[in-house]
């Protein structure tokens, strides 16, 4: 039995398309599951080697279901990330015309990406209803329950539909970021264009508390790529923060910043270090003066010599 | 015609219950609308005096639909906030027993608050389907489409249902925060226990950029209550931040911090200053030494005297 | 009786030379006095309009006698500063040769500036004795008490000496900074290349206390030119700080920084804003984005509009 | 030949008294030399095992001659510090009365400590002249050159003088801090109440540059005890900073702060870690939460486990 990847199904969604861009997916059994929680549970209980789920998109922001699943429960780790540009097609049963459309469906996450297009192109009295997924919406159109569905163009063939329109996207640069999540393991070797994800819980809450946490990164020249607050479940106003930082945990500046956080935070959960999907090593700026590995090593060596009286 | 408040409907939801806790709601026409966007649009186009919508809950965090509507479009302003403790009742048609339940529905936001209870108390094969609102879920149970709905206990009478169970809440202290939103106006007078909401867009993105923004609050002793990133729509990784700070815009420390943000940020959108629903003036700590209005005034007076040579 | 300036005498020192570079000195009676304390006391008790004293030199650093007199006692204010390049001449009675020199004198402050030259050029057995001033050293050579004196070349004529060597300076760029000090008055109008001097006393002493003080300047983009600790007289380890900051107290960023200091410090003593002697407006970099007067005014205006509900 | 300590002479000064409080001085030859520079040169060229010199006093602040000698030249290291309370006696030849005194002498450093006493107790026409040291002043009184000298009471016997008055001190808590300086060696083991001295040179000079340097200490909870600017000799306004920090270089928080400085500064010179003379381990507050050695070790261990995939 091949190792398997669980992914947020059903088949025919953007998630599957993104997953198939990973070379390693070709050698795994790809298993669609009904929810992000189910995908991550499959990893936690050993049914799947890894799970592939959306974690952030450029219209809706952090995918809270995924963040919350990573924040709580047994530790998991992000192995890889994938970026996919998202544009929608309007899928209908063959023969349907724009003016025929009275009901339309898609996953709720699609709505902000197609809202303006709908206003401009569909009859004003059209009714939107949410579907469990974009693929499911397509299926419901096939079954006749709705007149049209917004979904990836690739879903048309699977459900015997045709695309009345393609390339629909209210926002330019609409992208979704997916992650391949597994059990804790040694992180992939650094590539020079890496990202490190952690979740941090503040110890207390005074003026400057959050600034001081971010100072642990700033003082070591580590840039932040994402700061997403998530409720801790302890009542309104109690938040933890999911943070993506530039660099790999084996970069000295990142390692020392994480140590700093670990010391001053109530808790830090490491979520992995992995190659950036949005950049290669050529795109990554040189670390700020004083924060390269070489400079860290030289400074540590100097302190050691001082401690030994050899200076 | 009375002035009207548009609220996220339908009738019989937690939103309506929260709205009715505001004394001024008694003298307004309360108009349920289908979405947060519709509620805020009603204010923007003059159909409603104000809109009442959820903005944050202790399980799901910031309500992104509301935040995104406040962030974009014509400026709006938060006049008031209301906190409501959220517990669910399981509503069924009279005579239904727990063991009869094969399908259950509610708004998706209810799911994380009832998930554990469902696992422990409902048959394992029970199917969850999302409803447009909790009240709508109750209506669908009344119509026979589902066996049970999670909703506020107050919805039972309206839909001829009975509550098999009440007080369902996976998380202790589950609360939702609602805001009354209107067109820009002079903020309510400070009460001593106030909150100020803004949205900020960073000018650039270097190590420490976000720390420096937060430093504008910290250096003036202003505590933060919420920091919620929202995508700007300019692509993955481009975020603005919705910030709730302790204090009122007429507090000198808050006013100066906002000025500081305005100067260093690409943009700052003021969303209002209003009484805190979670605290009264007795609960609010004395400002940190050096940050009271009296100290600001004395320091400004001293600088003026120095500028005049009278020191 | 003309208004008078008291200056650190005697006549014929670098101080007098520096003072005469000020155009206003031509219309005042210039009165040499025996010490910095005497000069400043003459101002405090109304005998002199202003005092002219050294405050900093590039070899010895801050002139502690001057700093301490400004820090304590009735408030005084710096009106102007003058920079003078310092090189020494070796003055001898006519006929004396280098190899004749067995004793040499000067003010102790001259020693670090001529030490290396002495080693290289004078007999090794030469004896150094301190004089009350460089001019007084010259006088003592004239009287035959010492063989040679280090002093300004301009002192030779006054004391009937000749310069065996001129341009003596161990350190390149040796300069002394002098200040014209008077009673509190409206500071000179800003020139665009100004400096503001204050003395600050910390309220307490915790990790980060001094960093936070400096943060009041940094967060508003105000650069520091001098930070000189001076003991408070309350025992070892108790210091206040004399600070020179770029800019004028009527610059908004400087005024707000001073207000911030005033609020968080135990005490702040304003010592004046005055034109920089080391730079003209062409040399001064544009304020960091967000810290110009225009941006301060625009931000204050924005906050005022928010407070009024006009945004 | 016994190992020797060079100290700032002559015999009979406060320096010798302070030196003799060190137990190890009993087993060394104590050699008075004419200047701080001579004392430190004796160490550098191997003539003395160590030098004992004043470095800071509560009236005058940092002793610039000592600081400048430590800042430049071959590296040296502070082994120990001694605090001595300083009060003066007025020494006269037997038979002299207060009203007889027309001339008085002492080292210039004594002046600010006796000035007010002089005004209150000596004839107004009394003339002050500086001596090379307080002991030398006493010698000159013995020789009849001056009528009285301010010096330590212990100097009376040595020079056949008597103390007309003892316990003279304008400032309460007048103390001088002395250091025993040697060649680089392994620092003394930490005692729990230690101090670490360094000199730092900034790389550049932008708003916030000095704040950022101090941030390296602050972010790791290291308190500063002294920050003394000293000119670099590169012209007015060019300073390095002598810093005394609480803690020992083998304390993790101190070591990491030094590493941070080393990376961002142009240069850092380590001057040693040694027991504090002003405090014992009982006086030292517990390190701020998150900055103890145990927390550093635990955090480093956690990062190592994350790097290994064992979390």
Automatic annotation (TrEMBL), chains A, B, C, D:
Entry keywords, A to Z: Amino-acid biosynthesis, Aromatic amino acid biosynthesis, Lyase, Phenylalanine biosynthesis
Prephenate dehydratase domain sequence ranges: 4-183
Site features described as Essential for prephenate dehydratase activity, chain residue numbers: 176
Pathway given in the UniProt record: Amino-acid biosynthesis; L-phenylalanine biosynthesis; phenylpyruvate from prephenate: step 1/1
The organism's place on the tree of life at top rank: Bacteria
Record keyword Amino-acid biosynthesis present: yes
GO BP: L-phenylalanine biosynthetic process
One Gene Ontology term, aspect cellular component: cytoplasm
Pfam families xref list: ACT (PF01842), PDT (PF00800)
Record-listed E.C. numbers: 4.2.1.51
Substrates-to-products reaction catalysed: prephenate + H(+) = 3-phenylpyruvate + CO2 + H2O
InterPro entries in alphabetical order: ACT-like_dom_sf, ACT_dom, Chor_mutase/pphenate_deHydtase, Preph_deHydtase, Preph_deHydtase_CS
Molecular-function GO term, any one: prephenate dehydratase activity
Domain ACT: 198-275
Keyword presence, Magnesium: no
Quaternary structure, from the entry: Homodimer.
Protein's UniProt name: Prephenate dehydratase
């Amino acid at each position: 039995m091949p190792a398997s990847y669980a992914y947020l199904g059903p088949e025919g969604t953007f998630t599957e398309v993104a997953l198939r861009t990973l070379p390693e997916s070709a050698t795994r059994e790809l298993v669609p599951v009904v929810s992000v929680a189910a995908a991550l549970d499959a990893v936690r209980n050993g049914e799947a080697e890894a799970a592939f789920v959306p974690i952030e998109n450029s219209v809706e922001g952090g995918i809270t279901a995924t963040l919350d699943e990573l924040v709580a429960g047994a530790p998991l780790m992000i192995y890889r990330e994938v970026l996919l540009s998202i544009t929608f097609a309007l899928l209908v049963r063959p023969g349907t015309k724009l003016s025929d459309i009275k009901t339309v469906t898609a996953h709720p996450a699609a709505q902000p990406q197609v809202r303006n297009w709908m206003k401009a192109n569909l009859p004003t009295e059209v009714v939107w209803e949410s579907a469990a997924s974009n693929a499911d919406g397509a299926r419901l159109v096939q079954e006749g329950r709705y007149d049209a569905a917004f979904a990836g163009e690739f879903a048309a063939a699977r459900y015997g539909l045709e695309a009345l329109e393609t390339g629909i996207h209210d926002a330019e640069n609409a992208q979704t970021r997916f992650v391949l999540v597994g059990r804790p393991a040694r992180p992939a070797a650094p590539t020079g264009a890496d990202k490190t994800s952690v979740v941090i819980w503040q110890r207390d809450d005074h003026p400057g508390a959050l600034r001081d946490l971010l100072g642990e990164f700033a003082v070591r020249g580590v840039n932040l790529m994402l700061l997403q607050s998530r409720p801790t479940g302890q009542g309104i106003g109690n938040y933890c923060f999911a943070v993506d930082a530039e660099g790999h945990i084996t970069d000295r500046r990142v390692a020392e910043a994480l140590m700093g956080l670990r010391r001053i935070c109530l808790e830090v959960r490491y979520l992995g270090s992995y190659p950036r999907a949005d950049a290669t090593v050529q795109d990554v700026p040189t670390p700020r003066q004083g924060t390269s590995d070489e400079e860290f090593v030289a400074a540590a060596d100097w302190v050691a010599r001082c401690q030994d009286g050899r200076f």
